[in-house]
Structure prediction request, 252 residues.
Amino acid sequence: MFITLMISLLCAPLRDLGFDPHVTLHADGKSYVHEFPNEDPTKSRFFKTLATIDERRHLHLTGRCTRVWKVMEIASREGTERKDSSAPDMVLKDVWLDGSAKTEKQIQDELFKDIRQFASTPGGWKTRPRVKDFSVADKEEFSSALEGENFKEFFYGDPSKIVAPGVNRDNVFATNPVSVPPEAASAKDEVGEDDEGSVEETKLDVFPQREFVNRRRCFSLSDLLCTALHDLETLGEAVDVLRHAATGMSLL
Prediction:
């Protein structure tokens, strides 16, 4: 097993080891450049990180956490100035999803479709049983949210989605996980005494291995610059965010 592991690590392409060719260290040595590729290389877009909005380390070595960056668009991978001097800073979210999971954009599209259907309920949405216990104030706020496309304000933008090519890879380790019956697993390393009082240890011929789930990397880009909750300066701002979130949760 050790030899298989070492050969796999030494022979695997960099992409299979987690290196994304579309994310590179900038020449300044302090920031990263994210490339949004295009079939026409001349139309690829490049975004240079300016600061971290949210980044939390994963507890597992093999884990992948979501990172949210404040970025600016530059003309090329080596660029240092904004591509458009008047362009605002943007938000780039880097997230790893299970191979079969829907992207945030797909979930959001389905959610918006359901909200539109709810708003167009024959006889009015106020006749629906789920809102009968709403207060007058809540119904007024709900009514404002369901007017036109106002409900989109309660959700994070409408980001463009790009799945970077080459990051949706199979497990680099060829060995399939071993399935161990529960009764065998419970007997692992069990220590007891035989009739003569000597200690004997029950061992298994095979040991269970952890199965690494196939994942894919998704990037979302938005011009809606956000602030991390822990960076809010006043209690009033926090309360406004909570009320805004409560209305959004009600729409769900």
DSSP finds five helices and nine strands in the chain. The CA atoms of residues 51 and 233 lie 18 Å apart. Helices lie at 2-11, 104-119, 136-145, 182-186, 235-251. The first helix runs from residue 2 to 11.
